Amino acid sequence: MGRGRQKAKHTKVARELKYFSPETNYGALERELSAGQHSDENSYVDRWADQYGEEPGDDEDDFETQQDQNKSA
C-alpha cells in the first residue's frame, strides 16, 4: 500500500475518533466515583513490602555519600 493511501486511512480513523461521542452513563460514573470516596485511607496494603523490603533508592543519604566517595577517588 502506498504512503498516500495509508495516510488517508489514518486521517479517516483519526477523524472518526475525534468526532465520535458515545452516550455517557452519568449515573454509573457517579456511582463509580462516589464509591472511592467512602473507602478507608488505610485500605492500601503493600503486598510485596515484606518480601522485598525497602527500595534501594529510598535513602538519599546513601546517594550523597557515594557522590562524595567518587569525588575523592
Fold blueprint:
Elements: H1 3-19, H2 26-37, H3 49-52, H4 60-72
Description:
The chain is built from four helices and no strands. It is an all-alpha fold and 73 residues long. The longest helix is centred in the N-terminal third of the chain and has 17 residues, at 3-19. The termini are far apart. The mean pLDDT is 76.
**Distance, first to last CA:** 59 Å
Unreliable spans are none
Number of helices: 4
The pLDDT mean sits at 76
Query: Sheet bearing the most strands, described?
Result: none
% residues in beta strands: under 5%
Using the CA coordinates, give the radius of gyration.
Answer: 26 Å
Shape: flat
Structural class: mainly alpha
User: How much helix is in the residues?
Assistant: 55-70%
Q: What is the succession of H and E elements?
A: HHHH
Kindly state the number of beta strands: 0
Biased composition (Acidic residues): 52-65
Region (Disordered): 30-73
Protein name: DUF3073 domain-containing protein
Biased composition (Basic and acidic residues): 30-41
